[in-house]
Amino acid sequence: MHASERPFVEPPPAPATVAESGLNIGLLIQLVLKTLHLAGTVSGTDLSARLGLAFSVLEPALDELKAQRHCEVVAGSVLGGPAFRYRISDAGRERAALFLQNNHYVGVAPVPLEQYRSYMRRFRETMVNDVTPVRLRAAFHHLVLSDRVLDQLGPAVRTGRSLFLYGPPGNGKTAISQGIAHLLDGDIAIPHALDVDGAIIRFFDPVTHQAVPETETGGQGTRLDQGLLPDRRWVRCRRPAIVVGGELMLHNLDASYGPSVGFYRAPLQVIANGGVLVIDDFGRQHCSPRDLLNRWIVPLETGHDFLTLQTGLKFDIPLATFIVFATNVRPADLLDEAFFRRIQFKVFAENPTHRDFLTIFRNHCAEVGVEFDDAIVEGLLRDYFRPHRIPLRGCQPRDLVNQALAMADYAGLERKLTPALLEAACHSYFVDDAEREPEYA
Asked: Average pLDDT, stretch 64-82?
């Protein structure tokens, strides 16, 4: 779907003055001087592009720097300030070095926190996940899921509230969690950085955020049709999807300060704002499930999170992240009823039925281009699974087919499923720690 056809809540129009930008003139002076220090001689137009602000917003900062002899105009044009070329002076370099000692951030100017709050309020009011049974089944067509599971997933995704996804390992909980991202409609504007009382929090992450190519937006979004220019401090992105597992630590949910660089990085749940955050293997993190969910109680109930800066300043930030807790651990072994009350939707990823198991087997055989033989799989279930009392899991057909084909390739055999290959794959795949009787000559 082309960007023009996807729902999108526009960020504010480009500011034309310092007041409209919401930024302090002192912060603008720092950004301009640090940019001149690192870039050398630049034109007003180039400076505007680097900082993502109109020249009219930067001009007062340049005027003050010129008056203090911290920069100078080295070339001019009848076109005026934007075409002038600016160069930092020796005194300006000394001042820029002092700025860089405290804060290394150089790049697109930040968006004030209040402007981001206003945008997220409009986003939550405007963006609705139009999830229907038809769309839901289309999004998960590659998975074999029961109607019960699908009918429980639909309302959870539509409301955008938290979801607890539990059940035995290998039944597609991670695949289900990742598939939810395909049901989230539209795009979202992500600021390059936030300004919180003079502190800068880097927000846009090119690894996590999928920027919409300018070829799709015409380079200017839709604001040209309205006679407005877009605020280049924002990036139009697909709604984000982040998956974290056992490596998640409590400090990952707080704004992280880098003493060596002097600015912050946004925490995971804020980077995922407007999208999906999947906490996979919930219960296997280094911190306890109780501590982790205690951290989420307020955000889950209020839709706001509270972060703290190094200075002790505590501030709230809107949270419109669909959080999925996925676990293989029995819920009763994780938390008590009071905690689960905060997570409104719970979905059990059940074991596949006999029929579903055959369907998954058939689908994967088609994916890898080998013939599916119903009789061979039925024999496998009868002669290996049942005697060994192995429960059916959704991942087993894929894993056993891949393992059998790997064995065939190794032995130089035809890439074809046989009873012998599948039985050998089972012996290699399943753990059997039963002690064998010793064999004597």
From this structure: 85
Tokens of 370: 């080998």
pLDDT per residue over 194-227, tens digit each?
999 999 999 999 999 999 987 766 554 455 445 5
Q: Quick one: how far is CA 214 from the chain centroid?
A: 21
| 100: alpha, beta or left? (left if phi > 0; alpha if psi -120 to 50) | alpha
* Of 75, 90, 23, nearest in space to 54 by CA: 23
Phi, psi of 257, deg, nearest 5? -100, 130
Strand-strand pairing, 187-191 and 85-88: unpaired
Separation of alpha carbons 104 and 61, rounded Å: 19
Please give the mean pLDDT across all residues of the chain: 89
Give the model's confidence band at 440: pLDDT under 50 very low, under 70 low, under 90 confident, else very high. Answer: low
Give the tokens for residue 312. Answer: 């002790």
Q: How confident is the model at residue 420 (pLDDT cuts 50, 70, 90)?
A: very high
Supply the DSSP symbol for 8: B
Nearest in space to 322 (alpha carbons), one of 236, 241, 429:
241
The proportion of the chain whose per-residue pLDDT surpasses 70, expressed as a percent, equals 93
**What are residue 329's phi and psi, to 5 degrees?**
-80, 145
Contact status, residue 163 vs residue 345, Cβ threshold 8 Å: yes
Strands 256-258 and 263-265 come out as antiparallel
Total-model pTM:
0.86
**Stretch among 125-129, 371-375, 400-404 having the lowest mean pLDDT:** 125-129
- CA–CA separation, 199 and 202 (whole Å): 10
> Within 160-261, where are the H helices?
173-180, 214-217
Q: Catalogue all structural domains in the chain, each as residue range(s) with its CATH number.
A: 24-108 (1.10.10.10), 113-348 (3.40.50.300), 354-429 (no CATH)
Structure tokens at 343: 């997570």
What angle is formed at CA 344 by the lines to CA 340 and CA 345, rounded to 5 degrees?
105
Number of C-beta neighbours around residue 355 at 10 A: 9
- Residue 322 sits at φ, ψ, to 5 deg, of -85, 110
